[in-house]
Amino acid sequence: MEVTYALTADDYVNHQLYLASTSDRIRSNRLRSHVIATLALGVLALFFYLQDNIYLMFYFLFFTVICGILFPVYSRRRYMKHYENFVRENYKDRFNELIFIKVDNNSLLTKDKISEGCINMSEISEIVEVSSAIYLRLTTNMSLILPKQQIARFPELRHELLRIATQLQIPYINALGWSWK
């Protein structure tokens, strides 16, 4: 099976956000930042309470609650902005460039403006399907992004990838409900 498509900046950003959402390190960093910011404001509220400064105590208590509620929204936007800037800086030459992939029984042949290569099927560690794309994760911590909107014969490609996952006994992760949070 052969497919030709082009990736947009959003495809790269969504892929980076998916990887970030599945990374234990990034999830723990986000949680730690949330806890530290909320606790710091709470400690300030406690400090002013002990100093009998009720006005500042309520001021910092108010911001402790606001931080506890809104910090996840801030963190989500901050990471999204970070990855948008990262993609714009590092992948700008790859936007809307045609990518050709040929799926054989034993390998994936890929060709784009920059390179041409052959990936052994045994190097695929997992296949992840999200609502906008399929990510072929490789053992080298690299991925191939297959955007659903860009591929004309997508149902056939999905069927072929399910067959490959079954044949190679690798996970086919159905993450259609995934969204960046």
What does this molecule look like?
- The protein has a 4-stranded antiparallel β-sheet with strand order 1-2-3-4, with no helix packed on it.
- Helix 1 packs across helix 3 and helix 2 packs antiparallel against helix 3.
- The protein starts with a strand and ends in a 6-residue tail after the last strand.
- Helix content is 51%, strand content 24%.
- The radius of gyration is 22 Å and the shape is elongated.
- The chain has 181 residues and is α+β, with helices and mostly antiparallel strands.
Instruction: Tell me the helix content.
Output: 40-55%
- Radius of gyration over all CA atoms, rounded: 22 Å
Spans with pLDDT under 50 lasting ≥5 residues? none
* Count of extended strands: 8
Main β-sheet, in a few words? 4 strands, antiparallel
Strand order of the largest sheet: 1-2-3-4
Query: What value does the average pLDDT take?
Result: 94
Strand content: 15-25%
The end-to-end span amounts to 35 Å
Order of helices and strands: EHHHEEEEEEHE
Number of helices, counting only DSSP H or I runs of 4 residues or more = 4
Based on secondary structure, the structural category is: alpha+beta
Shape: elongated
Features:
single chain; alpha+beta; 4-stranded antiparallel β-sheet; 4-stranded mixed β-sheet; 8 strands
Summarize the structure.
The chain has 181 residues and is α+β, with helices and mostly antiparallel strands. The chain has 4 helices and 8 strands, in the order βαααββββββαβ.
Topology (SSEs and partners):
Elements lengths: L1 E5 L2 H14 L1 H27 L3 H37 L7 E6 L3 E5 L4 E5 L3 E7 L2 E6 L4 E5 L6 H15 L3 E4 L6
Helix pairs in contact: 1-3, 2-3
